[in-house]
């Protein structure tokens, strides 16, 4: 299935910026993605989580993680190679998805070595005064179980910063529950994989949202704050994607 390029145009605090969004790569092939990004000429490239299978490290860290997550840490070559290639085009910023919880120190170093910036409940200020933050996953599992909540104290702190704010937040289901109301102008999410099957423009199922989920793709607005959800690239489930091509988002802020 070919990768689709989807363009959204929004206004935000008088700033001008082009953002390329690559969500949920899951160590997939990326040659076609890089070509889409090159021709789009973005100012920045962002990944709102699950670039990799796991970043926990090759040995079990403190706390409980399944053996699958540990094993996935040995299969991240494609994710690191993509970051290296993307960083040659434009600055790259990543947040932590549910497959990437508890990033090991070694993998923090490896990400930095690619030239990308990992925003793990942290933020940076871009040219023009735009504040870009990354909210880390609480580690959601299953269709209905949303797992542990994100760091709500960090969200509150981030929301109080002065200036236009963009948040990378892997889970779209976090937005309405935890993010809205904190003055965060734009949130960029993935995780839902477009709802796996899409009919009449709506996804059928998504982790953390269950059947007929609310947030699987597109632009959403509440209380003057916006969410853009990417359908993402990879597909870890045995369930195929139907009427749901993978996508690279291009967001033009005008």
Description:
The protein is an alpha/beta fold. It has a single domain, classed as Metallo-dependent phosphatases (Purple Acid Phosphatase, chain A, domain 2). It is built from six helices and 16 strands. The strands form four sheets. It has a six-stranded mixed sheet, with helices on one face. Strands 6-7-8-9-15-14 form a six-stranded mixed sheet, covered by helices on one side. A hairpin with a 3-residue loop joins β12 and β13. α3 packs parallel to α4. The relative contact order is 0.21.
**What structural class do the secondary elements suggest?**
alpha/beta
- Got a strand count? 16
Series of secondary-structure elements, N-terminal to C-terminal: EEHEHHEHEEEHEHEEEEEEEE
By DSSP (H or I, 4+ residues per run), the number of helices equals 6
Q: By CATH's scheme, which homologous superfamily applies? A: Metallo-dependent phosphatases
- What's the number of structural domains? 1
Mean pLDDT: 91
Main β-sheet: number of strands, strand sense, barrel status?
A: 6 strands, mixed
What is Rg?
Answer: 17 Å
Assign a percent range to the helix content.
10-25%
Give the N-to-C terminal Cα separation: 31 Å
